[in-house]
Design brief:
The protein is of the alpha/beta class. The chain has ten helices and 13 strands. Bound molecules: coenzyme A (COA). The site of coenzyme A has 21 residues, from helix 2, helix 7 and strand 12.
């Protein structure tokens, strides 16, 4: 039986740091409020002309450097993003060109913060079916360019970054054991960028109304996220006949510390078994899980044979999980 195994991870964060104190000077907020409500202390923001494919390239390059796989060996590139360089061509095609991955097909996938795990789900299915052998999955976001820096309810949350994994087919009894994806489009209005698409194309009016920025009903999103993620994590473990105590590490989407704590509590998982970097980077949407995974691996928190649970929740609404045996 073929499985997809993660053979390398990589990540990239832009250099510029925006602290809560910096935000206090821009909007009516405080370090205390942001820390207490979200767990975020600072976030990374791109320099002027950096775009999603630039961040994706750095993360992918970092992953490729760690393995025998060369860019020309890749047969598929999936880029999860909702903040791509432009409507088209896809950010995945721009990345393919930068990497020189000339044998790889490339496409983008939009599932907001769940995008990376949606990408893993897709790549896993393609590897298991034998259609593809070596796949690069990237989550990359430049949310700072879609953030309304006058809106204190959203600008405190988001950050920029990218994370990447290289997947290869294996016959070993490890790798991706299961993935779960789900959506509820009836709740699309909880978090969205209303302008700039075919519904409300760019015009003087859409710009004046600030419709090209993220609009979020934070409190409602929070409640759905807590409920959904608790259920998703429990279901994923149950379907794999695993007890939460067998889990080595939960690697959650870094959206809000209180959401993460609620999921851990529901599983009876001590916080030492939860990977956190929200304090440093905020919510980097589809980049959040692969950045956290890369940092967990690089810091030695992931060992051979470990069970890892990845989970995320985001606009759409979408949610997703992946259970991995490292
Ligand atoms: N600084 C200070 N006060 C703020 C603030 C800020 N940055 N943002 C909002 N407030 C105020 C509100 O105006 C409100 O004031 P009021 O009571 O006078 O009306 C009060 O704080 C409470 O607002 P509320 O939205 O209920 O706060 P909250 O506890 O729900 O926290 C979020 C807000 C956004 C941090 C939280 O809801 C959240 O993280 N939601 C999930 C977001 C998410 O995960 N989104 C991405 C999906 S992946």
């Amino acid at each position: 039986m073929l499985r997809a195994r993660i053979v390398a991870t990589g990540s990239y964060l832009p250099e510029k740091i925006v602290t809560n104190q910096d935000l206090e000077r821009i909007v009516d907020t405080s370090d205390e409020w942001i820390t207490e409500r979200t767990g975020i202390k600072e976030r990374r923001i791109v320099g002027g002309c950096q775009a999603a494919s630039d961040l994706a390239y750095e993360a992918a390059h970092a992953a490729l450097k760690k393995t025998h796989i060369k860019a020309k060996d890749l047969d598929l590139i999936i880029v999860a993003t909702v903040t791509g360089d432009m409507p088209f061509p896809s950010t995945a095609c721009l990345l393919q060109a930068r990497l020189g991955a000339k044998h790889a097909a490339a496409f983008d996938l939009a599932a907001a913060c769940s995008g990376f795990i949606y990408g893993l789900h897709t790549a896993n299915a393609m590897i298991k079916s034998g259609m593809h052998q070596r796949i690069l999955v990237v989550g990359t976001e430049v949310l700072s360019k879609f953030t309304d820096w006058e809106d204190r309810t959203t600008c405190i949350i988001f950050g920029d970054g990218a994370g990447a994994v290289l997947l290869e087919a294996t016959k070993e009894k490890r790798g991706i054991l299961s993935t779960h994806i789900a959506s509820d489009g009836t709740l699309a209005d909880l978090i969205m960028v209303p302008g700039g698409g075919s519904r409300m194309g760019c015009s003087r009016e859409t710009i004046m109304k600030r419709l090209h920025f993220v609009k979020m009903k934070g409190n409602e999103t929070f409640k759905v996220a807590v409920r959904t993620l608790e259920e998703l994590a429990s279901q994923t473990l149950a379907e794999n006949k695993l007890d939460p105590s067998q889990l080595s590490l939960l690697i959650p989407h870094q959206a809000n510390l209180r959401i993460i704590q609620a999921t851990a509590k529901r599983l009876g998982l001590p916080m030492e078994k939860v990977f956190l970097n929200i304090e440093k980077y905020g919510n980097t949407s589809s980049a959040s899980v692969p950045i956290a995974l890369d940092e967990a691996v690089e810091s030695g928190r992931v060992k051979d044979g470990d069970y890892l649970l990845l989970e995320a929740f985001g606009g759409g609404l979408t949610w997703a999980s992946a259970l991995i045996r490292w």
